[in-house]
Amino acid sequence: MRAVLRRRTPESTGEALTIAGLTLDPATHRVSFEDTALKLGPTEFKLLHYLMGHAERVHSRAQLLDNVWGDHVYIEERTVDVHVKRLREALAHAGSMVETVRGAGYRLTAKPAVPVQTPVRASA
After folding, report:
1. d(C-alpha 79, C-alpha 77), whole Å
2. Strands, E, within the chain: which ranges?
3. What is the DSSP letter of 59?
4. Which of 27, 42, 43, 117 could form a disulfide with 93 if both were Cys (CB 3.0 to 4.6 A apart)?
């Protein structure tokens, strides 16, 4: 019953989330890494918002489908994989923060196994 209510309740906009230089502001729908603006599609934004709100926890594909897409959509679990791939690509240097936990699912971590690369800035 709680799961049904949770799926029916829209996520509140809330305050900006920041993890290891990655910032997501739900009110302005903006994402940045180390002060560099990133462009995300609407589904990737919702996926990142959920993962940042529940950082360091492993989420199965089914959990992500329920919490990001909701119960009103019937899609394959592998769709999550496609959107995680797109999210990693959009995050560029911060993409390694989205980890695959083999046999379990995905997690967003501030301490990725592969170090996060800081974007190189041209000097003036």
Report:
1. 5
2. 17-19, 22-25, 30-33, 36-38, 98-101, 105-108
3. B
4. 117
Where exactly are the structural domains of the chain? 2-108
pLDDT, tens digit (0-9, with 9 covering 90-100), for 33-57:
999 999 999 999 999 999 999 999 9
How far from the centroid of its chain's Cα atoms is residue 12's Cα? 16
Distances (CA, A) of 20 to 47, 63, 94, 110, 119: 18, 24, 9, 5, 14
Which listed CATH number (1.10.10.10, 2.60.120.650, 3.40.630.30, 1.10.357.10) goes with 2-108? 1.10.10.10
Q: Kindly state the tokens that stand for 109.
A: 């971590």
Neighbours of 75 (CB within 10 A): 9
Q: What is the pTM of this model?
A: 0.80
One-letter amino acid of 31: V
pLDDT at 43: 95
Q: Whole-angstrom Cα distance, residue 67 to residue 62?
A: 9
